[in-house]
Specification:
The chain has 269 residues and is α/β, with parallel strands linked by helices. The chain contains ten helices and ten strands. The protein has a six-stranded mixed sheet, with helices on both faces. A four-stranded antiparallel sheet has the order 2-1-4-5, covered by helices on one side. Helix 4 packs across helix 6.
Length: 269
């Protein structure tokens, strides 16, 4: 009962601003400082970053650099201690929390495995989508998931996972494709990816990313990754370390500077 009585700390304003259907300017972090509750360590400090509308931006860096924190702040799972995060010039805190999150699709390294049918696993990307079956099948085809789905005994009505009788467990790569199909179904104008391909082999990753580029077309996307080969697909790359951006540019620009990115690229190669 104590748990049920807890009140959320992040709430919508009394008169929220309508979030844009399509970004025109982009996303901006200005002087953002944040530390997780109950810890003294600063995750990001006086952080500045601009992501232009319609662009795919990659953020690379070592563990603990603060990369994943940016996704959590942008989803407004937390508010920064200082500074502001804006979408088309409007602070996130002026939007309805529910509406803000509906405008985003988030893909994580380990997507949720729903012990439900294939159709439901994809449909959960947008439960209000019209023409459910047609949209689900199209999303699966776009994600390259239709081939293995059609091989399942029950096809799109096959249960996934082992919680229930006759359920089927998928491989890591297949679950990632289901997650990508879920993202295709959800027509969000902001796409956030946090290490979505780190468990894939290079061949599966290359195919997955080529399909993602189609999904990201004309949308604003942020890709968090340790794999520099993945980052090369971005329009712009930002190198992050100890809560700050230390280098920015295209892959060719950063290699030519022979700085931190070029050094890490050489090590990964």
């Amino acid at each position: 009962f104590e748990f049920l009585a807890l009140e959320p700390k992040l709430i919508s304003p009394p008169e929220p601003v309508h979030s844009p259907d399509r970004l025109r300017e982009g996303i901006s972090f200005k002087g953002v400082t944040f530390r997780y509750p109950g810890t003294g360590k600063i995750a990001v400090e006086n952080f500045d970053l601009t992501v232009p509308a319609g662009r795919l931006v990659a953020i690379v860096g070592p563990n603990g650099a603060g990369k994943s924190t940016l996704v959590k702040l942008l989803c407004r799972l937390y508010d920064p201690e200082s500074g502001s995060i804006t979408i088309d010039g409007t602070d996130l805190r002026q939007f309805s929390v529910e509406e803000l999150r509906r405008r985003m699709t988030v893909l994580f390294q380990q997507p949720l495995h729903y012990n439900a049918t294939v159709t439901d696993n994809i449909r959960f990307g947008d439960v209000n989508a019209e023409s459910v079956n047609g949209a689900v099948h199209a999303a699966a085809a776009n994600a390259g998931a239709d081939t293995f789905i059609e091989r399942l005994p029950g096809g799109y009505e096959n249960l996934l996972g082992y919680w229930f009788e006759k359920g089927t467990e998928l491989s890591v790569g297949e679950w990632q494709r289901v997650a990508l199909a879920r993202a295709f179904l959800r027509e969000a104008n902001i796409i956030l990816l946090d290490e979505p391909t780190s468990s894939m082999d290079p061949w599966a990753e290359a195919d997955w990313l080529s399909r993602f580029r189609e999904l990201a077309k004309n949308r604003t996307s942020i890709l968090i990754t340790h794999r520099f080969t993945t980052a090369t697909l971005a329009d712009e790359i930002h190198v992050m370390d100890e809560g700050r951006i230390v280098e920015s540019g295209t892959h060719a620009d950063l290699i030519a500077r022979t700085g931190r990115y070029a050094e890490w690229w050489k090590m990964q190669r």
